[in-house]
Amino acid sequence: MLWPKVVQERVKTGNDRELVHSYPYRSACPSTVWAELVESASGEMFLAGYTNYFFWTQIPHFADTIRRKAESGCRVRFLLGDPNGEVTRQREEIEDVALSVSTRIRITLEHLDRLGSLANVETRFSAPLDAINHVSLSVFRFDSEALVTPHLARLVGHDSPLLHLRKHGDGGMFDRFTEHSEELWERAEPRTT
């Protein structure tokens, strides 16, 4: 009698199967998880964090990996906040940290500039009306897996929780979050250098 109940409580069913792991802080997610997801992506890598700057410091040889992925046909997209936008300015006041939001975005832009013009690598800034929706939720997609960070109040990204999702069918949490970031992408403004 006990065994079926124990199994039922341990085995994921339905939409909760998509939750691979949860972390109370994004910084608690091992760097190996990030590196493995980046390395394993072959068709789609969509980094829809407001700043995305930590990829360049957390993943060794990230620029080389982006270049290699793009050259092998992987679509790589960066959705960033506008470093000069009103939401960015407001978020800087809220966070009140030395490494400001606009500085973190500019770090990413500097690294992207060093990559040069690569086919399959695109960068956009969230539309002004969508920026508030973007700054409060980061969605990082790697083919059929995603790392999602809902930003809490005054906390910076690394202090907010993180969900590791893997797609299992249509209409689950993976789709809900990735559709959100796709909607922001569609209205986003292409970066012009």
Structure description:
With 193 residues, the protein is of the alpha+beta class. 41% of the residues lie in helices and 21% in strands. It is built from eight helices and eight strands, in the order H-E-H-E-H-H-E-H-H-E-H-E-E-E-H-E. It has helices spanning 2-10, 31-40, 54-58, 62-71, 86-95, 101-115, 131-135, 173-187; strands at 19-23, 44-48, 75-80, 121-125, 137-142, 145-150, 162-166, 189-190. Strands 1-7-6-5-2-3-4-8 form an eight-stranded mixed beta sheet, with helices on both faces. It starts with a helix and ends with a strand.
Q: How do the strands and helices of this protein lay out in sequence?
A:
Elements: H1 2-10, E1 19-23, H2 31-40, E2 44-48, H3 54-58, H4 62-71, E3 75-80, H5 86-95, H6 101-115, E4 121-125, H7 131-135, E5 137-142, E6 145-150, E7 162-166, H8 173-187, E8 189-190
Parallel strand pairs: 2-3, 3-4
Antiparallel strand pairs: 1-7, 2-5, 4-8, 5-6, 6-7
Note the main attributes of this structure.
eight-stranded mixed beta sheet; alpha+beta; 193 residues; single chain
Query: Any idea what the shape is?
Result: globular
Separation of the first and last Cα atoms:
66 Å
Spatial extent as radius of gyration: 17 Å
Order of helices and strands: HEHEHHEHHEHEEEHE
In terms of DSSP E residues, the strand content is 15-25%
Structural class assignment: alpha+beta
Spatial order of strands in the largest sheet: 1-7-6-5-2-3-4-8
Instruction: Count every beta strand, where a strand is a DSSP E run of 2 or more residues.
Output: 8
- Averaging pLDDT over every residue, what do you get? 90
Number of helices: 8
| Major β-sheet profile | 8 strands, mixed
Please estimate the helix content: 40-55%
Oligomerization category of the chains in this entry: single chain
